[in-house]
Amino acid sequence: MRRAALAIALGSALVVLLWPSAAAAQANTQNTNSQLGVVRVTTVATGLQNPWGLAFLPDGNFLVTERPGRLRVVTPQGGVSTALTGVPAVFAQGQGGLLDVALDPAFATNRRVYLSFAEPGTNGAAGTAVFRAELNAGSTGLVNGSVIFRVTPKLNTTGHFGSRLAFGPDGLLYVTSGDNFSSATAQRQNQHQGKIVRIRTDGTVPSDNPFVGNSAWLPEIWSTGHRSPQGMAFHPVTGQLWMNEHGPKGGDELNRVGRGLNYGWPTITYGIGYDDRPVPESVGTSAPGLEQPQHHWVPSIGTSGLAFYNHARSPEWMGSVLVGGLVSRSIHRLRLDANNRVVVQEQLLSGLNWRIRDVRVGADGFIYALTDDSNGRVLRIEPPRVTPRAKRPVTAPPTTQPVTDKRARVGRPIRDR
Question: Is the per-residue pLDDT at 412 higher than 60?
């Protein structure tokens, strides 16, 4: 399929954007079923190498990270820019690389962008870090950049870096960090691994963080006992922080995160080790002083991006939690009751065989997702147009269904999701 190309000169920089033809755009749209009707899925863009994080720019474009270390601008029409300049060097081995991207709450005036990434250290060590910079006027590169947070210490590892970024209603930046394949770190007070940290936009520590003033704890820590966090979002109504994380073999979790709380890894887990034996440090699925997940999956779905649906475009999806699945190759829509318990779960896109890496909800009420592949996609997902309940035929399908996926069986070892 031929595509039209436009080269835009901006100062000394050149950005090349490729737009698919109208016929190509139509060919890239397909329908898939859901409990409430047909869901329309459009491939907005392709050709991205293992895209990891997506952020919406005010002009309607997207910033998309690629794990090997590139940041690109993608347009709603499918244009993909050349790699932006000014991105930090990344440790692109194993699960490491360029990870999440977030815009400053005051981006309209300061144009600040935040990137989480696996930062190379000495002698092969690496660790999660956060980079802050400004997007230049032409959106061709980052300027005035610096690292504002680094995990302590860096470890010799190629996995479990996290890392998601989310700004809270308090205007502060929350950052997830995985346990770097070293389970015990998640319970160590003097290490950032296996934690969610809370920092100001310049990397300094808020005075009301839970462990400020306690010399045994690193002051950035907000919560602890996390294994491999993959999704994080604030509830748009309650302001509560939610996150999801990988279990070992089984036991993926959805958690509501509270100040200073311990989510148990590796002391408690609903999963087992990759050798099919109990996790050595685990005492079972519960223990005093350790938080229970809001929901867990056995077998694992390979949780990824997390978002809340809160748009009038689909009233019956309002309040749903959307969780990406790398192993289930789906987006899981969860409906909660008044006590935040999952009462309905359905799998979306499960027949399309795409590993879902990130999930976001746009201002237009569409869902945007990234697929994890060497030829990764940006997807736009249109919720079903729901027939009013009073007009549904009596033969309409039930609103609940079990979730099964043989690809996600607990017996399958998934070390690099």
Answer: no
Instruction: State how far Cα 226 lies from the chain centre.
Output: 15
Query: Are 53 and 161 in contact, with CB atoms under 8 Å apart?
Result: no
**What's the token pair of residue 323?**
């969780």
CA distance 343 to 30: 29
- Is residue 234 within 8 A of residue 169, CB to CB? The reply is yes
What's the Cα-to-Cα distance from 386 to each of 35, 351, 361, 403, 410, rounded to whole Å?
10, 21, 18, 21, 35
- Length, in residues, of the chain: 417
- Please return the burial class of 264, using the count of CB atoms within 10 Å of its CB with bins 0-12, 13-18 and 19+: buried
The DSSP result for 131-170, as a single string, is: EEEEE-TTSSBEEEEEEEEE-SS-BS-SS-----EEE-TT
pLDDT at 347 over 70: yes
Compute the chain's Rg from CA coordinates. Answer: 21
Q: What is the DSSP string of 300-318?
A: ---EEEEEE---TT-GGGT
Q: How far apart, in Å, are the Cα atoms of 320 and each of 195, 203, 343, 365?
A: 26, 32, 11, 13
What is the rounded distance in angstroms from the CA atom of residue 43 to the CA atom of residue 57?
Answer: 19
- To 5 degrees, how large is the angle CA 132–CA 18–CA 4? 160
Check if 296 is active-site: no
Q: What is the pLDDT of residue 130?
A: 98
Structure token pair of residue 39 = 């869901």
pTM given for the model: 0.89
Rounded-to-integer distance, Cα 71 and Cα 53, Å: 10
Residue of 160, 295, 311, 332 with catalytic role: 160
Q: Residues 224-245, buried b or exposed e (16+ Cβ, 10 A)?
A: bbbbbbbbbbbbeeeeebbbbb
Identity of residue 360? R
**Closest Cα to residue 403, out of 292, 327, 337, 316?**
327
**CA–CA separation, 287 and 283 (whole Å):** 7
* CA–CA distance, 207 with 219 (Å, rounded to integer): 9
Is 8's pLDDT higher than 70?
no
For 413, other C-beta atoms within 10 Å of its C-beta total: 11
C-alpha distance from residue 417 to each of 102, 228, 300, 304 (Å): 22, 10, 10, 9
pLDDT over threshold 70, residue 245: yes
Q: Are 255 and 305 in contact (CB under 8 A)?
A: no
Q: CA 369, 371, 375, 380: dihedral to nearest 10 degrees?
A: -30
Integer Cα distance of 62 and 60 in angstroms: 7
Which amino acid type is present at position 123?
N
